[in-house]
Amino acid sequence: MSYNWETFKTDAPSAEIRNAESGTYEIEIIAINGLGVRSAVTRLQRTISIQSVVPPNVTGASITPIDDTTGLLSWDPTLEVSVTVGGTVNIRHQPVLSGALWESSTQLVPNVAGAQSAAIVPLLQGTYLLKFSTSGGIRSSTVSSTSIELPSPHPRLQVASIAEDLTGFAGALTGLYYSSERGGLSINGAVLFDTLAPDNNFDALGTLDALGGVATTGEYLFAAPLDLLAVYDVNITRRLAVLPFNVAALFDDNLADLDTWGDLDGTDVADTNALLYVRSTPDNPSSSPTWSEWRICTNNLLRGRGFQFKAAAFSEQSSQNLILTQVGALLELQKRVERSAVLSSDTGVDGVAVGGDFDGLGLLDSVSTFTVNFAHPFYDTPAVNIAPMDMGTGDYFTLSNVTTTSFQVVFFNSGGAFVSRQFTHTSVGHGRRI
Prior knowledge:
This protein is mainly beta. Helices cover 1% and strands 42% of the residues. The protein starts with 22 loop residues before the first strand and ends with a strand.
């Protein structure tokens, strides 16, 4: 057997091995007297495990916005070797500003390395919750948290608010069932009901929710994809809330290995999670679209015409389950301002020009309007402001037929005759049609 020996001397009757890791240690001790005479070798072997060590609690948690969709979550670094070597920092979120609980939160990002003291996270209103975890999966005993109430510096246009829980969960269930008693979706049991009593003696069964344990995962596909009728860049914020519960509150109801249990008192239900996923398409979502891959949906900026959503629930313990009480998403378009170059209107004829390009015009007719096409159509009808540049005394203009794609303007002199005038426009709306 090969070893990486480390030799050191001590005058004390004990020695400390620093930065120890889990494993088997072969130790040899030799006593040396003042004349340099050595004793016989005393050997011992010990297996050391740091996996049972409860890591310290996270301290100093804070969240700082980076932009509209991301934030920097930071915390005090730890020197605990069970965390920094092979351990992780668990980050979860609950959409409440006070009273957040680890058990009622959901994982926000994959666990980060225990040696880190900061992470880029999706920016969501509510409370961020953190715990250290050893490589053996043992978490801090107390949660650390920080909350943020998001400002709205740039008003957005809400184009859809999806709430599957308010419409009866009409989508497709896989590995989940609707519990009218608990008012949400829960993960199926790991064992089919008709296999629980092969002798048909169902009277002898205990709590049915706990029999067979809870399956590891289940999915809910939203009832229908969303169609915006054109391609836009869309801000999507998840709407997700869960309530955990223990289906095996009695000690002998838990079917999992004892070593994998959390608190033995049955109240710590912390090994469940739920995620929202979204995928997009530039095509008509109702006509054989090509979808993107599924991606986790928290606070995303995605491009597409059609969007499809699904929720997934997870349990790491056969005795723990959850209820998806709120499932949905909020879709918004950002405010957009379009400013033109200097344009020149027509005198008594119809023209259609973008940026003053009259060379591309076709046959002119006798209708005295000037049409300006937006460089990129808006989602909603914008507010258009005209800024004339060479108006004479008594000149005026009329603005008409404002749509998501264009508007028309006519200039008159003080006598009501059509005149050509230079102008610019500033149009404010939401969304940029791609």
